[in-house]
Structures are given as structure tokens and as C-alpha cells.
Amino acid sequence: MKRERLYSIATLLKERVFNVLGWQLKGEPVIKEAEDILLLMVETGKKVLKVGVEYRKALLRATPSSSLQDEVDIVMVAAPHIGHAQLERLKANNVNAIDETGNYYFSYRSGKDHMILYEFNHKSKAARLPRIGAFSPKAGYMVMCLLTAERFEISTMRELQAKTGVSLSGIFSICEAMKRNNLIDYSKSLPIRVLNPSRFLDEWAAYYKLRLAPKINRQGYLISVKRIVDKESGEVAVQHLDWREGASVLLDYMPKSALTGVQAAQSVSRFYALEVGEILVSNLHEAERELTRQFILTPTSRNPDMILIEPYNSSSFVGINEEGKFRTAHPIQIYLDLLTSDDPRANEFSEIYREQALGY
């Protein structure tokens, strides 16, 4: 997998950078798979340059390793996807970078000549336009059921009905739409089987982001309590709390609630520190009432402590993990919530988390 990705990066560099500059590749790419390093030799017409590319699943730091800088003439970093804001930061720091979708920044100075190439037109795979006809809101139950099933298959439509609660006619209609779009296959003698789990999730994520995320009820809050600071005078002060206080109350009180987003994803991959807890709840107003019994709850859209998310239907609660201090949503739902978050850093983190938590 690493080798294929590094070869893909080499092809993109040739097509989008070297060919534009009139540079010619010399020999075959050299891959140091253990270090995720790609080495290329290019002829500029005046000289031969050695280009080193360091591939990372996540661009947690903006500069390549110092050892690579000492070894080559031109250094680049590569990643599965680089968001627009992140590519702009790399450009501002003059760090050459490219991703697997073809977004890149490349700068090279030789004497008085200074060449700069830049392109950002390509979105991550989950941002592609979906096949709308393959899905409906109720399809979420079937998506979660199929993607969490062993070998990504369910024996019969009746079994799928029993697991999802969707009517048999609804199951048939959705299955037919998915089959027409080459997402699943089935027959009277064969089970309902996902043909390509990665593509299946790509399509569902795109539909979810475009059609369902705008319908989700999402509200941020500041959490605080009043504390007596002087018993004699009765002086009271307001003490600010973090999201964990509210999460503990909600997850105990509401069976259909689960931690999601960045905090839930931290158990798999640590990306950045963001002290806000996102909680999926079956009923936002009921969750508010329970929290206000113990805390001062102040709605806010700026720097909240906690975000309550009421999903479009209860398929978001399929596959909840009860282990650990806080109950968490299934990794597929966590990925979808990262992808549709209002925080662009969470959006960038979504693909990294997906690869590490789901592997497809």
C-alpha cells in the first residue's frame, strides 16, 4: 500500500510539476518504504537535481525531517489530502507539498530564477459528488448494518429488516438503488454483499455531507456552576467547567447518547488538542433540560465547551462502544461527524482517522 501510494505521488509530480517546468525524470523512482521516502532524479537542462518526498498520513509538522534535507536538493512533503487552509500555511512557510488528489505547492530557486507552481482544485475523496439515487435518509440504517457486518454482507433482506427496523419494501427499494449504482450485489442464492467498502463509504459520506448534515440540529454551550466562596457572607462565584462534567451527566441519563467527533477519535489517533466535547443525543431539548438541573448552560456559537448533536435519525447510534470512561459512537459515525464538523481542522482529521480506525 505504501509503495503504491509513493509511486502515485511520483506520477503526479511528473505530470503536474516536472512536465510543466520542462524537467525530465532520470531513471526509476527509488522508494525507502520503511521511512516512507520517495527519491527522484530530474534533469532541468542545466543540472541534475535530487528530489526527496517524505510521505505522511498526517501533516502534524510543517517541515520535512532534517536528515532528508541534508540528502537532497529539493524537499517535499506528501499526504493523502491537504486541505486548502493547510496548503496555504505550507505555501506561506515555503514548504513544497503535494497530496494524492493533485493539490500541490512547488517552489524552486536557482540563481536569479525563481519558479513557483500552485494548484488547489481537488477535494478529498469523501467530498466528491455522490450518486444521490443510491441513498435516502433511511439508508443510514442499512449502511451501518452492512459496513459493520462480518465480511460486509448480510444473508437475506429479512435479516437486514430485523437488524434495521426498516420495512421490507423499504429494504428492497434501497437495495435495488444500491445495486443499480454498483455498490452492492445480491441474488436469491447469494447474500447482500458490499462490493467495495471504501467506495461504498465514500458515496455514503458524500450523500451524508450534502443532504443530511444540513438537517442535523447542532448547538454549542458553555458550562458553569455557582460555588459558595465565602460561607459567612454567602458570596457566590461562577465556576467554569469543561465538557467532561456535562458528558458524564448526559451519558448516564440518556441511553441514546454517545461521545463523537475529535474527543472520541483521540483514542485511535491524536491529531490536535481541542477542548470541546461533541455528544450525540437522541433529543436535544431533553438533554438541555437534564443539564440545566445541575449546571448553568449558556448557548454559544463561539468557543463552546460542549456541542450537542441531534442526528437526523437513530441510525447514528448503531454500533455504540460501551467500553472506556465515556460511551462512544461507532467509528463510521465518528468519521462522518468529523467530516461535517464546523471546524476545518476536524475536517482534515477525518480522513486520517478513517484510515487508522477503519482501514478502508
Task: Give structural notes.
With 360 residues, this protein is an alpha+beta fold. 36% of the residues lie in helices and 25% in strands. It contains 12 helices and 17 strands. The strands form 3 sheets. Strands 1, 2, 3, 4, 5, 6, 7 and 8 form an 8-stranded mixed beta sheet that branches. Strands 12, 13, 14, 15, 16 and 17 form a 6-stranded mixed beta sheet that branches. Helix 11 runs antiparallel to helix 12. The radius of gyration is 25 Å and the shape is flat. 37% of the residues are buried.
Please write out the topology.
Elements: H1 2-21, E1 24-25, E2 30-32, E3 37-43, E4 48-55, H2 66-71, E5 74-79, H3 84-92, E6 97-99, E7 104-110, E8 113-119, H4 139-148, E9 153-154, H5 157-164, H6 168-180, E10 184-185, E11 192-194, H7 197-212, E12 217-230, E13 235-241, H8 243-253, E14 257-260, H9 261-265, E15 277-281, H10 284-292, E16 296-299, E17 306-310, H11 331-339, H12 344-357
Parallel strand pairs: 4-5, 5-6, 15-17
Antiparallel strand pairs: 1-3, 2-3, 3-4, 6-7, 7-8, 9-11, 10-11, 12-13, 12-16, 12-17, 14-15
Number of helices: 12
* Sheet with most strands: 8 strands, mixed
Fraction of residues in β-strands = 15-25%
Q: Choose one word for the global shape.
A: flat
User: Which structural class is indicated by helix and strand composition?
Assistant: alpha+beta
Radius of gyration using CA atoms only: 25 Å
Helical proportion, percent range: 25-40%
- What gap, in angstroms, lies between the N and C termini? 11 Å
Pattern of helices and strands: HEEEEHEHEEEHEHHEEHEEHEHEHEEHH
Could you name the ranges where pLDDT drops below 50 across 5 or more consecutive residues? none
Beta-strand segment tally: 17
The chain-level mean pLDDT equals: 86
